[in-house]
Every structure is written in C-alpha cells, then in structure tokens.
Design brief:
- The structure holds two protein chains of two kinds.
- Chain A has helices at about 10-20, 25-35, 40-55, 80-85, 105-115; strands spanning about 5, 25, 55-60, 65, 75, 95, 100-105.
- By secondary structure, chain A is of the alpha+beta class.
- In chain A, the strands form two sheets. In chain A, strands 2-4-3 form a three-stranded antiparallel beta sheet. In chain A, strands 1-5 form a two-stranded parallel sheet.
- In chain A, about 30% of the residues are buried.
- Chain B is of the alpha+beta class.
- In chain B, a hairpin with a 5-residue loop joins strand 6 (about 185-190) and strand 7 (about 195-200).
- In chain B, helix 2 (about 35-50) runs antiparallel to helix 10, helix 9 runs antiparallel to helix 10 and helix 11 (about 270-280) packs antiparallel against helix 13 (about 300-305).
- Classes of the chains: A alpha+beta, B alpha+beta.
- The interface between A and B is large, with 45 and 65 residues.
- Strand 6 (about 95) of chain A pairs antiparallel with strand 6 of chain B, so a sheet runs across the interface.
Chain lengths: ~120, ~475
C-alpha cells in the first residue's frame, strides 16, 4: 500500500500545488504549473493522468482534488531512478558537468588530498 | 554507395594525419596552452572528416606529407583482411580524388583476394552503411529517452541564476531546471537547450555548476558535441575518430572549467574542484573497482588541469590565434601540386603513379617480344611489342577517350587514347580500328584488332606521360602479359 504512494520529485511538486489549491480547475492548474514549474500543458496533463490512474488524485468535471494526504506520500531516492534512464553513464553526445563514470573510494580520497593541498 | 564509402575512407585517411598532429600537439602543449586551443584544433579535424573537396593551397601541409611519403612505405590497411599491404604513397595521392575503385586500392596482390575486388568493396560499404544506421537509430532512441525523462523537470528558482548569467554576459533569459532524473548537472536540447540540475544542490556549489553549464550553453557546446558524435558515427570503423571524440570531450570540459576560473577568479579554484568531486559518483562494489582504477578518469585529468596556471595574457592569445590560423590553412587545404610536376623525368620509374594507370593488358593472350628502350638512337623503341594472333582484340588499358585514329607513316594504323593526369596510351600496327575519334572508352573496351607487320602479328604498345614516352612495363606486370 505504502509503495503506491511513492512519488517522483516532479509528481511531488505537482501534488504540493494541488494540496495547496484544491479543489482546482484543471485549466488554472495548467496555468499554475506553467508559472511555478515551467511545464507545458501536455506535461501537466500527462502527469495528472498518471496520478489519477494511481488513485492519488481524482478529477471530476475538470475539477482536480487529492485522494491522499501529504503525510502518506514519500519521494523516491534519486539514485534509483538514474540507473534506468542513463544506464549509469551519460551518453556521449551530451555536455555535462562530469562524465558520469564512477571512481573508487581510494581514488576519491586521493583527489580530495590533491585539492586540499592546493594553494594559489 | 561504394563511391561514398570510398570517399569516406579517403577523407578518414586525410583527417587522420590531422588527428595525429592534434594528439601530438596536445601532448606537448597541454600544460601550457588553454584547452580552447585544442578544442578548436579538433574542429579542424572533424571538419576534414566530412569535407570531401577543399581549396588547394601551396601552404597545405599535405604537400610535405606527400614528399615525405615519396619513399615507399608499406602500411597495414584496416580496410580488408584479405589485402593488407597497400603502398602508402598510393593512398596519399588518392586523397586528391576519391579512390577510383576499391579494386585499384587493393591492387597490390590481386591473387590473394578471395572475392573480386569490386564485390569486396560493395560488401564493405554495405557493412559500413548498416553500422552507421544502427548507431544512429540507437542514438536517436537514447536521445528521445533522455529528453522524455527530463520533461518533468521543474524550474529552478534562485537568485543566483540571474547573478551568474549576468557575470557571464548572457543577455537571454536562461532556463534552468531541476529534476530527480539526473545526478550530474548537464545541458540537453537542440533548439531550446536547457540546463538540468540534480535536486538539492547547495547554493555555493550551484554557482560553479550553473556557471559551467551556462558556458556550455553560450558556446553551443551541446550542438558541437552532437555534430561531432554524428561524424564519429559516419566513421564508426575508425578507432582514431572515437579516441578523438573522447579527447575532444575532455578539452570541451577543461576549457569550460578554465573559463569559469577566468570569470570568477582563482580564488574559487579550490571550491570549484571540491564541487566537481562532490558530484563524482563513488563506487563501492569491489569487483567493478578493478576496472575503474584503470586510467580513463577524466575527473583526475580535469583537476590536474586546473592545478596548473596557464598563461592567458593578450599576447599569448595572439600567438595562439596565429598558430590556429596557420594550422587551419595548412590542414584544411589540399596540396596544389598536380600529380607528377615534381617528377619531370619520365624515365625514372614513377611507382607513385601506378594507380592512375591501373592497366589491364591490351591483349588477352600476348607475349612481350621487344622491350622499351629510348637510351640511344640505335636501339630506340618507344614502346613494347606484344605478339598475339592476327585479329585478336585490342582493349583500352584504362578509362579515357580516343584522341587520335588514323594511318601513320611510322606506326601504321594507330589509336591514341588519352587518360587522366597527363597519361596517353598508343596502340600501333593495328589491323582494324573499332573506335572513333573523341569516343569515350572504358577499361577493357575493344578498340581495334591486332595486325600483321614486319616480324609477325604483334601490337606495338606505348605509354606517354606528359607527352614523353615512358616504359609501359612500369604499369604492366610481366605476369599479366604472358
């Protein structure tokens, strides 16, 4: 039971808006999401549908309201999600802060020591 | 398709020379020169990989390369398993034009080829094309997956975004999003690129990270990387290209790091490095550790890169620019030298030019009865005599056009065929002529028949290079004409 209330960060943020404003008209919800989250209309609707399918919200006559309380939901830990999307390493055609490869604990320690010793 | 594949190969070979130069330059100057210089040099390499025709220039370094390879150098070609030894000077020349046919390319040991060379070429190009498509399809799928998972990212609101954008001189409104779908900050998107941050970054780290990513955005690194990746997919069989992609990625990131330090001052260097380390994923699984410790750690390289203080004053930048311009001119242009101008003496064996006249024998079954000799008037013979049966077919030895047909006092019934690059072949003492003046002829096409004169039925065959007779045996293997 508890498992079904695990939410991604995006879902959680949307739920927070719903809890704050419910019952809310879906058109104005789309508008709010665009303002606060930067989402397109389609993104908001997709998310709403997903939440509805999981019985976390209900929508009647385009009025959205929640079916669960804030205490009942939990967020996913981010580490778990990454593995599915990026297979643990970033595709080569992306520019990113790091290349996504892992290093060993010893190497991390060693690098930290190098940085510690740095003085300009 | 075979032609396309061939030009890809020849571009790959040309570009490889640039690639190796960049690798060497990088090795020598990496610690002194800002990474942006190598970033730009790599661009020259990748442009050369897809630029088939270029402007000729006397400055082109391939002029020198050519001179360098005048000696015969045997190289192992990665082209085919069957035929390994290809004369590099041949490849070198063929850079100027796409290789004629793969058959010419692998002419070295025709007996060892299991398939007809043309068929091998076709098979290879099919393999190449399918490899390319598979790579592209996988990439597109991956890209769509990434884009899709980033759709639900939410606006990142913080006053530091505007601050950083201002510091970097970005005028446009920048879009920064945060999401639990990434653990490493990155830029994604084609037309409307966005910066994506992992959740819950501390503000002091966020400044470094956002600055880094916005520099990517400003310089359009995300497009460069995509384009470079695409080029690498075209040249997927060339390991040097993939190596270059990796080195370029390093240079892109390093030059980005350097820019951040430039904007924010050296004071932040240490904290910036701590930020980098904090995003690094650490592996605890003992088995994987074995592989991970083995080189290939770009974080270490980037930290080491930041530890060095590089000179980046104005005069140094002028110097870098000058080097860059010189490099680009010499590497992007083709040699101006027309084939053979440096070899005006046709008596010398011109082994470099073999590919031009990759001849077939002019008659199917012939025997050389008299050789070429122009050393003195007494023994003067400006071609070779090939004895054959009267009425046997005479074939054009190479593609070209018929430049002369007619009766000649000295040569009897004579056909002249002009080929590319200043070559001409003469077929004398014919019985009949089966070609017209100005007619285009293909290699092995019938142009006449063997006639009878003097010593018996034979064909007098001459090869001219820039109007002077040269020894046909340079091109005709004795084994071909039996």
């Amino acid at each position: 039971m508890e498992d079904s209330y695990k939410l991604f960060d995006a879902e959680y943020k949307l739920m927070k808006i719903i809890w704050k404003n419910e019952p809310i008209n879906s058109t104005s919800l789309v508008k709010t999401c665009n303002e606060l989250l930067g989402w397109k209309k389609s993104t908001t609707y997709t998310m709403l549908k997903k939440l509805k399918d999981r019985n976390i919200i209900k929508s009647e006559n385009a009025i959205v309201s929640s079916l669960v309380r804030i205490e009942e939901v939990k967020k996913y830990e981010s580490e778990k999600i990454i593995h599915t999307t990026f297979d643990d390493s970033l595709p080569r055609f992306l520019v990113s802060f790091l290349d996504g490869k892992k290093i060993s604990v010893e190497e991390a320690e060693e690098l930290k020591l190098i940085i510690d010793q740095y003085k300009d | 398709m075979v032609e396309l594949f061939e030009s890809i190969i020849s571009m790959g070979i040309t570009a490889s020379i640039i690639g190796i130069s960049v690798v060497l330059l990088r090795k020598v100057f990496k610690k002194k020169v800002p990474s942006i210089v190598f970033y730009t040099l790599w661009m020259v390499f990748f442009i050369r990989l897809i630029l088939p025709v270029t402007i000729s220039s006397e400055l082109s370094s391939f002029n020198f390369v050519e001179a360098l390879f005048d000696k015969e150098v045997e190289v192992v070609s990665y082209l085919s398993d069957d035929v390994q030894f290809v004369n590099l000077s041949k490849i070198n020349i063929s850079m100027k034009q796409p290789i004629e046919t793969l058959g010419n390319f692998v002419q070295g040991e025709p007996k060892e080829t299991r398939f007809p060379a043309k068929l091998t070429g076709e098979i290879l190009s099919i393999i190449w094309l399918s490899g390319f498509f598979i790579l592209i399809v996988f990439t597109v799928i991956k890209y769509i997956k990434v884009i899709h998972s980033l759709k639900t990212a939410t606006k990142y609101k913080s006053s530091i975004v505007k601050e950083v954008a201002f510091n970097l001189g970005l005028k446009k409104d920048v879009k920064i999003y945060e999401t639990d779908q990434v653990v490493i900050p990155m830029v994604c998107g084609l037309f409307k690129p966005k910066v994506y941050l992992p959740l819950n970054i501390k503000e002091e780290k966020a400044v470094h990270v956002i600055a880094h990513e916005l520099i990517h955005l400003k310089r359009k690194d995300y497009l460069v990387k995509l384009a470079v990746y695409f080029i690498a997919c075209i040249h997927w069989f060339n390991p040097l290209v993939w190596w270059a992609v990796r080195l370029l990625s390093e240079d892109i990131e390093m030059s980005c790091d350097e820019k951040v330090i430039n904007v924010y001052g050296r004071g932040i260097k240490q904290n910036y490095m701590y930020s980098m380390l904090s995003f690094q994923k650490i592996n605890n699984k003992p088995l994987e550790k074995l592989f991970l410790t083995f080189g290939n750690n770009s974080l270490r390289k980037r930290i080491e890169n930041l530890l060095i203080v590089k000179k980046d004053s104005v005069p140094f930048y002028c110097l870098y620019c000058a080097i860059l311009i010189m490099f680009s001119i010499t590497m992007l242009t083709n040699p101006i030298k027309v084939l053979g101008i440096d070899n005006p003496s046709p008596n010398v064996k011109v082994s470099d030019d073999i590919y031009v006249l990759n001849m077939v024998s002019p008659v199917i079954d012939g025997k050389i009865t008299k050789g070429f000799n122009i050393s003195s008037q007494a023994v003067y013979h400006d071609g070779i005599d090939i004895s054959a049966r009267e009425g046997d077919v005479i074939m054009a030895v190479e593609d070209g056009y018929v430049s002369y047909v007619g009766e000649d006092e000295k040569y009897g019934l004579l056909i002249k065929v002009t080929h590319k690059n200043g070559y001409e072949t003469w077929y004398a003492r014919c019985q009949s002529i089966k070609a017209e003046k100005d007619q285009k002829v293909k290699k092995s096409q019938e142009i006449g028949t063997v006639g009878f004169s003097g010593t018996g039925p034979h064909l007098h065959f001459s090869v001219l290079y820039n109007g002077e007779f040269i020894d046909p045996m340079t091109f005709l293997e004795a084994s071909i004409v039996r």
